[in-house]
Amino acid sequence: MAPSTPRLVVPIDLKKKPWEQERPLHNRWHPDIPPVCEVRDGEFFRVEMVDWTGGSIKDDGSAIDVKGIDLSAVHYLSGPIRVVDKDGIAAKPGDLLVVEICNLGPLPGDEWGFTAIFDRENGGGFLTDHFPCASKAIWYFEGIYAYSPHIPGVRFPGLTHPGIIGTAPSMELLNIWNERERDVEENGLKSLKLCEVLHSRPLANLPSPKGCHLGKIQKDTPEWERIAGEAARTIPGRENGGNCDIKNLSRGSKIYLPVFVDGANFSTGDMHFSQGDGEISFCGAIEMSGFLELKCEIIRGGMKEYLTPMGPTPLHVNPIFEIGPVEPRFSEWLVFEGISVDEGGRQHFLDASVAYKRATLNAIDYLSKFGYSKEQMYLLLSCCPCEGRISGIVDSPNAMATIAIPTAIFDQDIRPKTDKVPLGPRVIRTPDVLKCTYDGNLPITKNLATMT
């Protein structure tokens, strides 16, 4: 018998706000956020999602929406979804939840997305000290391909995936998160020297009622006030999975998620048409609304069987990800390396973050020789199917990181040649990405070697 049509368990109406949906969305992790639906082990079901900003970023000719976005309200997630076995018995703490991605894509009629750089004073990004201005590029989809009027001469197939998929934490795990992240926020500038080099954005995003949406829980009730003061932000990935941004989690992938509460209560969102390794501009994928068609399986007792705690409690585990068989095929790549020496020439000891920053800056500066602005290339490396690697982490004192760019995504040959960079209309690129001015006064880094 032919397989059944997937059951739609979380529908989305793009004309409505996230909190107005038939099954209200949420943007925090907490064990007491109630599930909005239930699925059975082996059932084929469909989940729809808004883009991670809930429709705040528009397909228009301005980046002012990026400059003024309220980041306290993101990400908007569909769920939580309660999972039970074929006998109706819920997933239990200590189980593994296997989530298989059978199909996915943009929501019909909404086949576009965006990549953005947040303002230095409002979120920033990996290279926020070099690129302080809010900027964005719009992308349009032609089947599996994406192109942008703001980055001409580039076209590539998307490896579509959810940026966020995770289970609800237990109260014990939530308390662990909040305690360690509060310590980073309070003491990080004193103890973490890397912050001086990366000109870090907020060191952590602690629980806050501002911008909080808790699904079915009614706002301005005592229950809402309590949970809003405890619930974890969705910004980083953690033990429950969450915002892992693994670009290869596409069709055929499986995610093995630890279960911390009855029913698992998993949620998903932050759909990406395409993303480069690292999602470096922070809003760095091609962000879009979308859908997932999924199956779940419960492995009883799977956490103890398959996951090794790396910390003081059995809760200090991480998910396992199985990559599917579908991905773009590229045979030629241009690879840029970076070492753990920062832009001021200071040596850092085996620091992969500094090395990856150097590799990315090297790639951006190189590609800008072919008629592109550096903002265009920063956004492109955030969202195209480039490959990031930690190539060396043992050879003191330099960590070595690389970023590999498929040359086929460009309509011109970008390799070095004996007759230097070519000239002509194929190199002169217009228009640039959409930009706002930077009006703040936080530190900005300049490339001293190119200043005259």
TrEMBL record:
InterPro entries: FmdA_AmdA, FormamaseFmdA. One of its GO terms (molecular function) is hydrolase activity, acting on carbon-nitrogen (but not peptide) bonds, in linear amides. SUPFAM superfamilies: Acetamidase/Formamidase-like (SSF141130). It comes from the Eukaryota. NCBIfam families: FormamaseFmdA (NF045496). This is Formamidase.
